[in-house]
Amino acid sequence: MYYYEENGQCFAACQPLPLTAAEGAAEQPVFLFRRGPESGRAAFSAVSLSQLTAAAEDVSWLDSRRISVTQAPPIEAAEWIARGLRAVNFDHPRWREMAAWQPTQGKKRVHILAIGDVGSTIAMGLKLLGGDTVSAIGICDINEAATKRWEFELNQVTLPWRYDAMPPVEIVPQERLFDCDAFLFVASKGIPAVGSGVKDVRMAQFEANRGLVELYARKARDARFRGLFCVISDPVDPLSRAALLASNRDESGVYDGLGLLPQQVQGYGLGVMNARAAYYAKQDERFTAFLTEGRAFGPHGSGLVIANSIEHYDDALSRELTELALTANLKMRELGFKPYVAPALSSAAISVLLTLRGEWHYGSVCLGDIFMGVKNRYTPTGLETEDIPLPDGLCGRSFEKEAEGMEPLVVICPQVEENSRLSAVLAHALEGRPHMKLQRPDQLHPMEGRRVLFAISLLHGGVNLGWYAMLSAIRQDKRFFEGCCGAVLVDGDGELYTKSAAREIVFAANQAGCAFMGAPLIEATGSLENFHIRAMLRHTDYLTAYTSCAGELVERLLADTPPVRQHPNLMVLHASNRKTSNTIALWERMAPRLQGRVDAQVVSLRNGTVADCNGCEFRTCLHFGEEGRCFYGGVIVDEVYPAIGHADGVLWLCPNYNDALAANLTACINRLTALFRTTPFYNKDLYAIIVSGYSGGDIVAQQLISALCMNKAFRLPPRFCMLETANDAGAAVKLPGIDERLAAFADKMFST
Hints:
Elements: E1 2-6, E2 9-13, E3 30-33, E4 43-46, H1 77-83, E5 85-89, H2 95-99, E6 108-113, H3 117-129, E7 134-140, H4 144-154, E8 169-171, E9 182-185, H5 201-204, H6 206-222, E10 228-231, H7 236-247, E11 265-267, H8 270-283, H9 290-293, E12 295-297, E13 305-307, H10 315-326, H11 328-334, H12 341-356, E14 361-367, E15 370-379, E16 382-385, H13 392-405, E17 409-412, H14 420-430, E18 436-438, E19 451-458, H15 465-475, E20 485-492, H16 498-511, E21 515-524, H17 532-538, H18 542-559, E22 569-574, H19 582-590, E23 599-604, H20 618-626, H21 635-646, E24 649-655, H22 663-676, E25 685-692, H23 697-711, E26 721-725, H24 738-748
Parallel strand pairs: 2-3, 3-5, 6-7, 6-9, 7-8, 9-10, 10-11, 17-18, 17-19, 19-20, 20-21, 22-23, 22-24, 24-25, 25-26
Antiparallel strand pairs: 1-2, 4-5, 12-13, 14-15, 15-16
């Protein structure tokens, strides 16, 4: 054991550190350990010796007997743990701050962002139950009428003659959101309507809510917030991790550890799952043991684990009780009501109050690379998670399944034969990044709300049989990647097929619900000659350029955030005859559904001459692009350039002409190069309505993907295109179910 003393504070460690050595142990030092800053909690309240020398932080910490250690734990630390030992990661840039941290005394100020159904119910709970804990409740919402209503109503809730017994409710502006001890993120977008048929409602919200929580996590970083960042919106577990990561990245997207600390972020969703299990335990005597011996683990949603008893665990009963708790929200929706009252009170209001009091509660906390719901509390020495002996059958469910289920990044990399180059590049790109690899078709399963990297090796003539087996499964399930965001890495052994394979991947995954960021592809031909320019610009060789680009692709994928738009601008582009065009007819049928939500500008390329790009020299193209022009002028410069510049998204109306885009649309894409050199398209969405007379709509869709998403860096929303088959003029609007499909397509525009 090594001992140190600096600035009047005593430290202990199991390895030498660059600190001032002390002669002996203090009565109660701070214990210092070393681990990657992104690898888990930066500080915690130690409850076992094995935590001090653990190889990694993960869900095994729920039962310290199962922790793998790097060296024998220091026996002398047992007494420190008994008195309350704070452990701090010496490699975290804010370790000194955490070592000196002291809990805030007295009542706490709580701020709530979003005061809709859930937020207002939370406010009521805090008002009625928080008199001993909460000094004031601040509410904030874009709807000023809502905040005025709840300030007015809740401040009229009081005990007679004890008018200060309950905390007051105050309206707080956005700039004061983080002037508090606990910030409750309750904002949400895109809650599936009752009767929508969505099975996992929580994960369906992930893509939309992630952008919001990341926005406010960055605001917390800017405000140097030191309180508790409470994630209430669904799904709490991945949103908590998203908030943590977003707050700790600088403007260039590099992790710096200067935002929220892992122990500052907690998700609140497991409380109601525990309460639902208790409800059913009271209804059925088979589950009675849960009321005194039971536990809840895992996410607020799919993957939940309810243990009927820790001491007398019954796997069958536990799984049955888990299913009852998991589907309770669906039963409420079947009654025609949104299930928000119990979650708002049990998961949020009650659990947050217990948190602020330093009492045991259920919440989702950082456990290494994941956030997972467990029993925990905040002590004077930091965050403590319950450490109890767990039965083997339970560990098999809650440990292994949850660790796999909550990885933020999934890498789909089928390799029938080893591709050593791709393996080495992937190893570099994924180093230090939590991920799960799926290498065999039998490992592939539908997923929601994940970042997905497709890393495909093409050997022996541009074919990967393992990938084609996966592709078949993806094409058959239209919700396979619901709420996911993807990127593609293709490594070929020849000079052909990498691009065609990539756009086939993107099209299939996009049709199954996966969004793609702008420029989502890194491809490597056999010779790597396609890295000539990149290598030259980086002053390096082809392989190094390839490796660097792959790493940057993964960084962009993990950091990508869909833009949040209040009233987007849509550019509609076509080159067809309005009287006979099926694509225009479909647009005109759909347009009324967008009124009031989207500002649409229609640009026609049918009239006048549309000159194709003639390949000007780079400097010439750049010169005109900087002036917002192109050498060839015409309608492209006069109408298309300004419209795209102001647009949040572009809808392409594309009839299938000989399995290809119309000539004027192709020319328009080519002419976008000048504008693209100076105007980023990364936050502009790509949409399309494609009508084929016979077949081949997928070919046209893939042309748009490769030209505008992969090349010009437009974002690809989930299911970006509407594909129909109609030949005769006016036939498209008569197709069975066309109005329903148009309505669905319109409703999802700019929804994430």
